[in-house]
Design a protein that fits this description.
This protein is mainly α and about 350 residues long. The chain contains 13 helices and four strands. The protein has one domain. Helices cover about 70% and strands about 5% of the residues.
């Protein structure tokens, strides 16, 4: 990439960050959708949860600019228009949920419909690299796998939005690493979308850091999870570079692990998994004495390590890419054992 293009891309991201910051301040002062603290909350005073609006508006302003100004053919394709329609559906229902609390089933139904919409236009995981085997065509199995991936990551991101700065910070770090990787591999369409997402989150993140002045609510968290899940399929499906689907899996490995382990533990204990709780690993860390900032910094450090691992992954031959996950599995096993043991000792789980 030429230096001039790089500077203009950075300027574009910074512009969206400033716009996001201004809009977030407006939401704090003018849009008083408050999150009242309860026994499951990590905050002690009523806090606005309208920050997702600022992220959404900034992102769509960026998309409009790219559609008008960019000569990349991806922004003119039919799947791009469908992508916008699907995330609008997610956004609208999430806004209603923030206002009226629709419940888990309504949100899940919307996520499934939005995923089916994008799948109907070919946004489907069609090939996967299996360890020591190589690339395997999935055929019809690609459709349920895509559904599980998009809906799963959307909910995992929503579940992990529980302490100051964590969700927005993760979206920024993941967005930056995925932008770098797709740029290296020549996927400029996804690269520009990643920069748009990073810019839309930057301004909000500045005001969501501990002590948070505003939360993103479901409007932001479901939107971010859905967009990042779909972007990973765009990168692997609609560009000659075919960025590995495992890149996004590795970037979000700590989220996937935390969500999967928590669901497994609660199911094993006969708990209602759709009921709100505060027993994710990151929440237990907070309950054990770590501040919001300390937990968030730990998870962001893990995200950076996973990002570096993703840079390694794209340079490893296809049959051996799964081996890149091994150190992160070991690390998560260690964190899980330490946190779970301490939490049980103190009666938190």
């Amino acid at each position: 990439m030429e230096f001039k293009s790089l500077i203009s891309n950075i300027a574009f991201t910074v512009f969206l960050g400033v716009l996001s910051y201004v809009l977030t301040i407006f939401m704090i002062k003018r849009v008083r959708i408050l999150d009242a603290p309860n026994q499951r909350s990590s905050h002690s005073v009523p806090t606005p949860r309208s920050g997702g609006f600022a992220i959404l508006i900034s992102f769509f302003v960026g998309l409009l600019a790219l559609r008008v100004l960019s000569d990349n053919p991806g922004f003119q394709e039919s799947f791009f228009a469908v992508f916008i329609g699907a995330i609008l559906l997610i956004a609208i229902v999430s806004v209603v949920d923030d206002l009226m609390d629709l419940g888990f089933k309504a949100k899940l139904f919307t996520q499934v419909i939005a995923t089916i919409i994008v799948m109907s236009f070919g946004v489907v995981v069609d090939r996967l690299a299996f360890p020591f085997v190589g690339m395997v065509d999935l055929g019809l199995w690609g459709y349920p796998l895509t559904l599980i991936w998009i809906v799963g990551l959307t909910n995992a991101f929503n579940f992990m939005d529980g302490i100051d700065g964590l969700a927005a910070g993760t979206a920024i770090v993941v967005g930056v690493f995925f932008a770098v990787i797709t740029n290296i591999e020549g996927n400029i369409f996804v690269y520009l979308l990643c920069l748009t997402l990073v810019g839309a989150c930057l301004g909000f993140f500045a005001l969501n850091w501990q002590p948070a002045k505003i939360f993103m609510g479901d409007t932001g968290s479901q939107f971010l999870g859905f967009v990042l899940a779909v972007l990973s399929i765009f990168a692997g499906k609609f560009d000659a570079s075919h960025t590995s689907y495992f890149v996004m899996v590795l970037l979000f490995f700590h989220y996937i692990w935390d969500t999967g382990y928590t669901l497994f533990r609660r199911t094993k204990n006969n708990e209602k998994v759709t009921q709100a709780h505060r027993t994710h690993l990151y929440q237990l860390m907070n309950a054990l004495g770590m501040s919001h900032a300390q937990v968030t910094l730990l998870y962001l450090a893990l995200t950076i390590l996973q990002g570096l691992g993703a840079l390694v992954l794209i340079n490893v031959s296809v049959p051996y890419r799964a081996l890149v996950f091994l150190p992160f599995i070991i690390l998560q096993l260690f964190i899980t054992m330490v946190v779970t043991k301490r939490a049980r000792t103190q009666g938190l789980i």
